[in-house]
Amino acid sequence: MYNEKVMDHFMNPRNVGEIEDAEAIGEVGNPICGDIMRMYLKIDNNDIITDVKFKTFGCGSAIATSSMATEMIKGKTVREALRLTNMAVVEALDGLPPAKVHCSVLAERAVKTAIYNYAKERNLTYKELDGFDPNDDHDGHDHDEE
Ligand code: FES
Questions:
Q1: What's the confidence (pLDDT) of residue 142?
Q2: What distance in angstroms lies between residue 123's CA and the mean position of ligand 1's atoms?
Q3: Nearest-angstrom CA–CA distance, 2 and 126
Q4: Domain ranges across the chain
Q5: Residue 140 DSSP symbol
Q6: Where are the beta strands (DSSP E) in 13-91?
Q7: Which CATH number is 4-129's, of 3.40.190.10, 3.90.1010.10, 3.20.20.140, 3.40.50.12280?
Q8: How far apart are the CA of 47 and the centre of ligand 1, in A?
């Protein structure tokens, strides 16, 4: 049911934990299953994400996709991280069973929520966040959930 890449990221997830002095923290719940994810980002003065960690009560697919997502945004700019979609993460993992694709939304939303909070605190605007509402379960993207 799960391919090798997914199993690897599930069994040996990268970047699990918390960052105490994180510039950005985002917590989201998955409306479909009720699972929770918290994402911590270190962001330097050049808007580069220098470190990222996550904690989740989510399932194996949530762990695998978050692990992959953290690897994909580490070292990237905030803007690049905002452009990362859950489907890009699923593709990087060579796919998930269709019933588990909703789990991958947690990582995307947690990253966006963390940056949303960061931007709000510092009065920054990122056009990639236009229309994003951390309290809205549907942010307008087609997540191709089922
Ligand atoms: Fe909840 Fe996967 S079942 S995140």
A1: 47
A2: 33
A3: 36
A4: 4-129
A5: S
A6: 24-29, 36-43, 49-56
A7: 3.90.1010.10
A8: 31
Q: Tell me: pLDDT of 140 over 80.
A: no
Cβ of 7 less than 6 Å from ligand 1: no
Residue 1's pLDDT is what? 86
30 CB within 6 A, ligand 1: yes
- Round to whole Å and give the CA distance between 55 and 18: 7
What are the tens digits of pLDDT across the range 57-107? Answer: 999 999 999 999 999 999 999 999 999 999 999 999 999 999 999 999 999
Spot the catalytic one: 25, 33, 92, 119: 33
102-119 pLDDT tens trace: 999 999 999 999 999 999
CB count in 10 Å sphere of residue 11:
11
Contact 26, 116 (CB under 8 A): yes
Place of tokens 């719940």: 29
Q: What is the mean pLDDT of the chain?
A: 93
Please give the structure tokens belonging to residue 83. 């452009």
Task: Using most ligand atoms within 8 A of CB, pick from 102, 137, 146 the residue to mutate for ligand 1.
Answer: 102
